[in-house]
Amino acid sequence: MTTNTANSAFPNLLAPLDLGFTTLANRTLMGSMHTGLEEEKGGFDKLAAFYQARAKGGVGLIVTGGISPNARGRLTPMGCELSKFWHVAKHKKITDAVHQYPTKICLQLLHAGRYSYHPFSFAPSKVKSPINPFTPSAMSVRQIKGTIKDFAYSALLAKRAGYDGVEIMGSEGYLLNQFSCVRVNKRTDEWGGCVENRMRLAIEIIKAVREKVGKEFILIFRLSMLDLVDGGNSWADVVTMAKAVEAAGATLINTGIGWHEARIPTITTSVPRAAFTWITEKMKQEVSIPLVATNRINTPEIAEEVLSSGQADMVSMARPFLADAEFVQKAMENKSDEINTCIGCNQACLDHVFQQQRASCLVNPTACYETELTFAKATKNKRIAVVGAGPAGLAFSVYAAQRGHKIEIFDRASEIGGQFNFAKQVPGKEEFYETIRYFNKQISLLDIKLHLSTEATAETLVQAGFDEIVVATGILPRKLDIEGIEHEKVKNYLDVLRDKQPIGQNVAIIGAGGIGFDVAVYLAEEHEESPLVNNKEKWLKSWGVDQSYQSNGALLDKSAGEPNEKTSRNIHLLQRKSTKVGAGLGKTTGWIHRATLKNNGVKMLAGVSYKKIDDAGLTIEIDGIQQVLDVDHVIICAGQESQRGLYHKLESIKGAEQGLHLIGGAKVAAELDAKRAIRQAAELAAVI
C-alpha cells in the first residue's frame, strides 16, 4: 500500500517517519490494548486476524497488548507471557499476518508489579494498590536483577517471533512506573531514594534489551509524563528519566498519562480531544528522539493538528482502531467522514477487559470478532423493511446493505439516531454526534431508503411485500406506581432531553441508572457557557491537573485554589436499592460520573422509598424516616418498557411472522444498552 500525501488533507499524519534503520509508512501508532484473546483457546489465530485487519487498513506501527516477561508479572493468574522458546510459534502467527502489509508491529512488554491480580505479585516495596485486593511482596535485589534478564530474553524471543520491536511499559502505574515514584518505592538501597536510583530498573532494562536485540530493532519506552497521583514524579524527575531513556538506546518515547488508580479521567468520552498533548510538546524541548502523543485523539483532523503544530512526531490511537480498522486508509482517500469514530465510551473495550471478558467495540461489534462476525455477500438479495432508526435499526441496516440487501428504514421521528439524539446532548457525551454522522453517511453510500416522519403500520408493511421485516422500535420510559404520579410536577427524561421542557431549580430524579446520571449531569452543568469538553484548560483545572507542573504528579493543590463552579440547582438523585448510587454504571467510568455529580453538589441518596408526589414536593422514606423534598419537578428515570405493539400486530397477520425479527430495546429493555443493541443487529444482519 502506498501513501500519497501530495493531495491529502493530512500530509503530516501520512508522512513516513525515518527511524534510521527502518522507516514507518506514516505517523500513526495503534496503541497497546489488551483484548482478552491473548488468553483464549485459539485466541492467537483471532488476534492475527484482528491485527491484520488494522495493517490492511494502513496503520503505520502496531503495539500489541501487554505481554509479561515472566510469571510474576502477569496481569492475571493465567495472563499471557513470552518467556519460553515454545511461546514464539503462536506470536509468529501475528507477525506473519501483519507483515503481508507495510505495517510494522512491536510487542509490548508489561510487568504489572502490584497491579498483578494474583497473590504472587511483587513490587519495589510492600505497598498495596487501592484497586487490587492483593498486597505485593517487596522485591529482593536478586529478583530485580532477574527481572532485567527476563525483559531482555523476552525481547529476544519477540525478535525471533518476527516482531519489528518492543515497547517497554513504563507508565500507567505498572512495575517500572512503581519503581520510578516515591508513591510506591520506599526502598533505601540503590533502587530507591533519588530519581537516579528509582529509574535505575527501567534504564537497566532498556540497556539489557538493546544489547540483546541489537541496534536495528525498534525500542519504544512508554514514559509516564503525568503520573496524576500523590507521590508522583516532578517534571524535573520526568525529564531526567526521559534523557536517560534516550541515552540508554530507545528509538521512540511514547507518552503515558496517569496511573490506573488516578482519580482524573484520561481517556473517557468526557475528556476533551487531545487534552494531554501539551505535555508531549513540553518534552520535545528536552529530548531529540521522536515522541508519540496519546489520549483522546480520535479523528484524522485532530491527529493532523497535533503533528502540524509540532506537539509530537507520531500520534497513538488505540480504541479508534477498534472502532474502525480502515481509519488510516479512509484518511488517505480523504474520506474521514466515512470513519466510524471512537466515542470513548469504554463499554465494550476497557469495561470488558477489566471484567475478564473479550474486548470489542460498541460502535463496531466486529472488533476482536474478525473471524466470527463477518458479512459475506448474500446469496439472495432481499427487500427488508427496518422499523426504527435508533442504534439497532441503523446498525442492522448498514451491515445488511453491505451484504447486498435492499433496505428501507421507517421512523416517525424527523431525524435518525433514536436514543443517541438524547445522549449527545448530555455534557461529556458529545461524541455521539459522530456516530449519527457515520450512519447518515453510510445510508447515503449504501443507497438505503430512509422514510422519516413516517408511521409504519403492520398493514402497509405487509402490503409492500417485503421479504423480511425487522422491528427495532426501541423503548418508552417506564411508568411508576406512586401516589400523585400524574401531578404536574412529574416529568420523564424525554421531557427534559428531547422536548427541552423548562425545569425548576429544585429537582428530584427518581432512578440512578445511566439515564438518571445523564439527566443529573445535563441539569447540573447548564450553568456552563459551553461544554467543558470544548475547553481543555478549564477541564484540566476542574479535575485538578496542574499544567504548570509545579507539584509532583502535576496535581493542583485544591485547598489553595479556587473552588469548582457548582450548579445553582438543588438536585437530588434517588434510587430504591441500598447499594452505592451508581454501582451499576460502567466499571471504568462509574467513578467519573459520581465524581462529576459530587463536584456539582448533587445529593445522591440510596435506599429510598417513594411515598407520594403533591404540591409540597416528593415524600420519601429512608431507614423508616419520612421527609419531604421541596422540589419544583420530579423527573422519572426509572427504567424502560419495550415498544412491541407493531411487532405483536405483525405476528398476528398470517404470513407476516415468517420473516419477522425483533432487535434492540424493543426486544430487551432492561437498560438503555446500545452495545447490546448494535451487536444483536450485527449478528442478525450476518445471517439474514
TrEMBL record:
Cofactor annotation: FMN; [4Fe-4S] cluster
Residue intervals passing through the bilayer: none
Entry keyword Flavoprotein: yes
Keyword Iron: yes
Family matches, as SUPFAM superfamilies: FAD/NAD(P)-binding domain, FMN-linked oxidoreductases, Nucleotide-binding domain
Any single GO BP term: fatty acid beta-oxidation, unsaturated, even number, reductase/isomerase pathway
The organism of origin for this protein: Colwellia hornerae
Descriptive protein name: NADPH-dependent 2,4-dienoyl-CoA reductase
Record Pfam families: Oxidored_FMN, Pyr_redox_2
Family membership: In the N-terminal section; belongs to the NADH:flavin oxidoreductase/NADH oxidase family.
Domain NADH:flavin oxidoreductase/NADH oxidase N-terminal: start-end pairs: 13-337
Family matches, as InterPro entries: Aldolase_TIM, FAD/NAD-bd_sf, FAD/NAD-binding_dom, NADH:flavin_oxidoreductase, OxRdtase_FMN_N
Gene3D superfamilies linked: Aldolase class I, FAD/NAD(P)-binding domain, NAD(P)-binding Rossmann-like Domain
Superkingdom: Bacteria
UniProt keyword list: Flavoprotein, FMN, Iron, Iron-sulfur, Metal-binding, Oxidoreductase
